[in-house]
Fold:
Amino acid sequence: MSSNPVSGRAAELGGEALCGSDTSAAAVGYDATPSDDVKEYFEEAYQRRVYNPLEDPTATERLFRLCRQWQAEGRTVIFNSGVYDLMHGNHRAFMLHTRMAGAGTHWKKFSADSAGRKWEDLSPQERADYTKQLLLEGRLKQVVSVRGNDSVAERKGNKPEKGGAPRPIYDWETRARDVMSASVEVEAGVVLPLADAVTVHDEVIPELAETPHNDIMSIAAFLQPDVWSLYFESQYIIDAIESDENGRFTNMDVLVLTGRDFYSDRLLGGPFTTTNITRRLGGSALNGGK
Structure:
């Protein structure tokens, strides 16, 4: 056995010591873990939590059944959507916000009658404590639909008001992986994924034309979540919901979340947004940021 315990550990890892036999010197080794072994963890999570109708014809129905299973178990299903390009702190905060917004609906369904109090009657601290309890118990489940490449390019690509860059920057599957990987530590040692299931919608991709994924209204109506959390800027969705005459959204709570820039960055000169990041990469900053 090597007299140098660090060198011995490097050998156990399949590495090769670089610094000779001088016991006073640190040992450096190469780890030989294959990259596929590392990727396997991410790929397994992707297969479990990303429902890709472009690759799996059963994905849509499996996601529908998962939502029904969660509801049968007494959980509240929250739905939200977005581009989620160049994942940043405000994306993650927004996903936590949309998930937490389901607490009021859960209270209404499962606790209001027995407590004899409406959600609005609870104090801010009571609401916060109840929401945290739901998060810790896994009672709030979130489905996120990522907008596909073609419709993002059509809506945002090379637009001056969007930083003038081609959009999206990342393929939708990469963006779905980023959404899937986003998490928050609810309390010490308890890490919660922000999305329990991820899928895609796109009104331009031909392969999705005859499926519920062909636009955001169709996939939301198909999945029938308990809560649809919307960003306040999604006025076209709000208008479409309010003008829908088919009753597709009457069994869900549609919540518009007021705009909040949770995090800013000094070098961006403003809040974290994909547009501000692309402007920064192009050599500019907002509001005097350096």
Remarks:
- The chain has twelve helices and nine strands.
- The first strand starts at residue 76 and ends at 82.
- The radius of gyration is 23 Å.
